Amino acid sequence: MSELTAHIADLRKSYERAELNEEASQADPLLQFDQWLKEAIAGEVPEPNAMTLATVAGNGRPSTRIVLVKGYDERGIVWYTNYDSRKGRELAANSFAALQFHWVELERVVRIEGVVEKVSAEESDAYFHSRPLDSRIGAWASPQSEVISGRSVLVTNAAKYGAKFLLQPPRPPHWGGYRLKPDNWQFWQGRRSRLHDRLRYTLQADAEWLRERLAP
Ligand SMILES: Cc1cc2nc3c(=O)[nH]c(=O)nc-3n(C[C@H](O)[C@H](O)[C@H](O)COP(=O)(O)O)c2cc1C
């Protein structure tokens, strides 16, 4: 083992900031998520709305990347992206996906699983037009997840679409939102001696949430 990997093997931390229990947690996981996200924002956690999105290709091979949550309500969790990207192609082949937030400073993780669908064109339009101009041009300029010959491709595309659309770029047809409708949530709170708290919420046939504690 190299000196560096020996050092990594010794890295460990005791989690002691808070607890998560059946009495104090919300019966509705969306409300629990809302509370924790608000606490992450109030606690000035860096990029509190950044989440890992896992998708699975048609051949069963998983992949992950980070995206930003841009909305959530009882219908699900929303983010925006390029529909032709790798994640877009994988979601077209297999609509099951998983999301994960890790708020390091709060010693908290939220895991969410469910089925994904595209948001309506009106919803994507509304969000697209709320974005800064350079982001709207960027959605046209970047063939996300495709191989390009160099950075100059992006610079040239941005100049081309900037000149074409001036201040009014329309939403590209290949760009928009996805919504994951959760059927399974997990909330993890780090605790002392690796005896962490984990609460899982599973959607039942009667549309009620079953809350269970999992061993850490
Ligand atoms: C903090 C952070 C936020 C990001 N947010 C988004 C996002 O909201 N939408 C998006 O398409 N890519 C976002 N990205 C880039 C993705 O992680 C990823 O590189 C890109 O979507 C291509 O992924 P794919 O090839 O797996 O489809 C973000 C990256 C970081 C580091």
From TrEMBL:
Record key words, sorted: Coiled coil, Flavoprotein, FMN, Oxidoreductase, Pyridoxine biosynthesis
Keyword Oxidoreductase found: yes
GO molecular-function terms, A-Z: FMN binding; pyridoxamine phosphate oxidase activity
Chain ranges passing through the membrane: none
GO biological process, one term: pyridoxine biosynthetic process
Signal peptide: none
Reaction(s) catalysed (UniProt annotation): pyridoxine 5'-phosphate + O2 = pyridoxal 5'-phosphate + H2O2; pyridoxamine 5'-phosphate + O2 + H2O = pyridoxal 5'-phosphate + H2O2 + NH4(+)
Cofactor note: Binds 1 FMN per subunit.
EC class (word): oxidoreductase
Pathway involvement of the protein, from the record: Cofactor metabolism; pyridoxal 5'-phosphate salvage; pyridoxal 5'-phosphate from pyridoxine 5'-phosphate: step 1/1; Cofactor metabolism; pyridoxal 5'-phosphate salvage; pyridoxal 5'-phosphate from pyridoxamine 5'-phosphate: step 1/1
Residue span, Pyridoxine 5'-phosphate oxidase dimerisation C-terminal domain: 175-216
Keyword Chloroplast: no
Binding sites annotated in the UniProt record for FMN: R65, I66, V67, L68, V69, K70, Y80, T81, R86, K87, Q144, S145, W188, R198
Coiled-coil ranges (or none): 1-28
Cofactor(s) required for function per UniProt: FMN
Stored Pfam families: PNP_phzG_C, PNPOx_N
Assigned EC number: 1.4.3.5
Binding locations of substrate: R12, K13, S14, Y15, K70, Y127, R131, S135, R194, L195, H196
Residue intervals of the Pyridoxamine 5'-phosphate oxidase N-terminal domain: 37-160
Similarity annotation: Belongs to the pyridoxamine 5'-phosphate oxidase family.
Quaternary structure note: Homodimer.
Record function comment: Catalyzes the oxidation of either pyridoxine 5'-phosphate (PNP) or pyridoxamine 5'-phosphate (PMP) into pyridoxal 5'-phosphate (PLP).
Protein name: Pyridoxine/pyridoxamine 5'-phosphate oxidase
Organism of provenance: Polaromonas eurypsychrophila
Lineage, broadest ranks: Bacteria, Pseudomonadati, Pseudomonadota, Betaproteobacteria, Burkholderiales
Gene it is expressed from: pdxH
